[in-house]
Amino acid sequence: MKKIIILLATLVLATTLYGAEGPIKCKEDGTQLEMNKCAHDDFLKADKELNQVYKALRKVKKEDKLFLKNLKKAQRAWLAYRDADLDAQFTCEGGDLRSCFGSMYGLLLNGSKAELTLQRVKILKEQLSEANL
């Protein structure tokens, strides 16, 4: 039974990542899967920027142990906030998000996730600018 579940999960993942022509590529005015891929790519780009700015801020403030401790605490709290905010935005009675939001769910979720992440990037960049003064 365990092998069947693993096989089914693998098939579902493979069909999500690959279309008939191979890996799904971002295309803003393409199919829903292609637009979902664009939104996911946008989130990954924002997340990468967030990690870079966070690391840069930690590096600049490396001597301030209290700041680093509080920054880590704030970042963990922000991640919890982001996830809770997304849960609130995408509340669905009955729990089946696809039935509530349809095939656009991935696009909407990743778009909102990218937007929230870029807001956090802006805040950390401001802190980094102030730290560099």
End-to-end gap: 61 Å
The oligomerization state is single chain
Strand content: under 5%
Compressed to H and E, one letter per element, the order equals: HEEHHHH
What form results from the Cα inertia axes?
elongated
CATH architecture level-2 label: Up-down Bundle
Q: Radius of gyration in whole Å, from Cα? A: 19 Å
CATH class: Mainly Alpha
Helix content: over 70%
* Average pLDDT score: 88
Structure classification: mainly alpha
Provide a count of the helices: 5
β-strand number: 2
* Largest sheet properties: 2 strands, antiparallel
Adjacency order of strands in the biggest sheet:
1-2
Q: Domains counted in the coordinates: how many?
A: 1
Q: Can you tell me the residue ranges where pLDDT is under 50 for at least 5 consecutive residues?
A: 4-14
User: What is the CATH topology?
Assistant: Substrate Binding Domain Of Dnak, Chain:A, Domain 2
